[in-house]
């Protein structure tokens, strides 16, 4: 753990109270100069820290600073460990490298921002600093769980947002979570096959949540379709990260496909709605009739034909 991370942990443990530079140096076994450099690095990274001559440094109660200690204090699930980075190209890419190197299930890669965040179908996922939670969990799932990982993640995100004190959350098939009628979360699941067993060697589930609106507002490319999940919630990013992981790993470890599918269907806002089914060479009007036990979308086209969609993209007709 770097000095700045040790300093942040100490301030988290004393959140709302001042800790002197000398006390921090003694606690961490470093020099006061090292403490000062750690504080400077944290401030440069956007961490809200107050400094007061004669009193020291304070992380205020309302500081929304994402950290391992900040997340851990809200965790109820065991077996989760973190790799936290200031900036990576993509948390999915880092998680896949760690998984290929043999890391255990339950490692979660978190970044304050991503330079090349990935969405579905090769799209870019906007990852502004100090506004979202961008994380990827490494899994080594049993075969029965693989097809449900994205669905499980969508349910867990919706539950986690609400458990963190955020807005009411719903799901747009396949894997977009909405608040206020707009998208607040994207999910990207990737897996690597084990050719010897015919199963999955590992899977990574990437989750990006717009927790608050970034300074200056959302990027112009998404401002008309994006929402923030937890405006006005103290310590929102730590809470969202923890509560999403709590919900995800609880359902993953106590896997019940029918229960997950029922909750996914309950949170869907597409049933009965008119949509456009996007295929490689066409866009076809349809009406959503149901979501089945495998979380496939049952649609009826204008000619009366029906189809069960396993994957793909649909657009809501306004």
Descriptive report:
The protein has 318 residues and is an alpha+beta fold. It has three domains: 3-58, Arc Repressor Mutant, subunit A, CATH 1.10.10.10; 68-267, BirA Bifunctional Protein, domain 2 (2-Layer Sandwich), CATH 3.30.930.10; 274-316, Roll (SH3 type barrels), CATH 2.30.30. Helix content is 30%, strand content 29%. The protein has nine helices and 14 strands. It has helices at 3-13, 21-28, 32-44, 68-72, 91-100, 143-146, 149-163, 236-253, 257-267, and strands spanning 50-52, 56-58, 81-88, 107-114, 132-139, 170-172, 176-179, 182-194, 199-210, 274-279, 282-291, 297-301, 306-309, 313-316. Strands 3-4-5-9-8-7-6 form a seven-stranded mixed beta sheet, with helices on both faces. Strands 13-12-11-10-14 form a five-stranded antiparallel beta sheet, with no helix packed on it. A hairpin with a 3-residue loop joins β1 (50-52) and β2 (56-58). α7 (149-163) crosses α9. It is elongated and about 75 Å long.
Overview in brief:
With 318 residues, the protein is of the alpha+beta class.
Please state the structural category: alpha+beta
| Biggest sheet layout | 7 strands, mixed
Would you tell me the overall average pLDDT? 90
CATH architecture of the largest domain: 2-Layer Sandwich
CATH class of the largest domain reads: Alpha Beta
